[in-house]
């Protein structure tokens, strides 16, 4: 479960939440985007890694980010959306201390996962 949404589908006990979810997505630090439901994106001339939901999550890896309402034409939306996002860290093997290795949590970020609500 990520941000109140189950990976295999939306939580059926939260029908009010399900009706407002527009898109589930993951954007990696190297720019790979996966989203559900799938479709064609209009991202020409845009770098999604400069979007507020992404930049704020990367800058604050321990926080859940909630954006102000915004237009998201690249996700084929004609309505205003609110995005809730959070960083995803690379998995760590048991017993590995990244601080002892001289790494910051920011060095372990794999990408950002998010949900867009109408």
Question: How would you characterize this protein structure?
Answer:
With 118 residues, the protein is α+β, with helices and mostly antiparallel strands. 12% of the residues lie in helices and 30% in strands. The chain contains 2 helices and 6 strands, in the order αββαββββ. It has helices at 15-20, 52-59; strands at 21-28, 33-36, 65-66, 70-71, 80-89, 109-117. Strands 1, 2, 3, 4, 5 and 6 form a 6-stranded antiparallel β-sheet that branches. A hairpin with a 4-residue loop joins β1 and β2. It is elongated. Mean pLDDT is 76; it is low at 1-8.
State which percent range the strand residues make up.
25-35%
Q: Over the alpha carbons, how many angstroms does the gyration radius reach?
A: 15 Å
User: In terms of structural class, how would the helical and strand content be classed?
Assistant: alpha+beta
Q: Could you describe the largest sheet, including whether it forms a barrel? A: 6 strands, antiparallel
First and last CA, distance: 20 Å
Order of helices and strands: HEEHEEEE
Number of strands: 6
Query: Helix fraction?
Result: 10-25%
Which regions are unreliable across 5 or more consecutive residues at pLDDT < 50?
Answer: 1-8
Number of helices: 2
- Overall 3D geometry? elongated
Mean pLDDT metric: 76
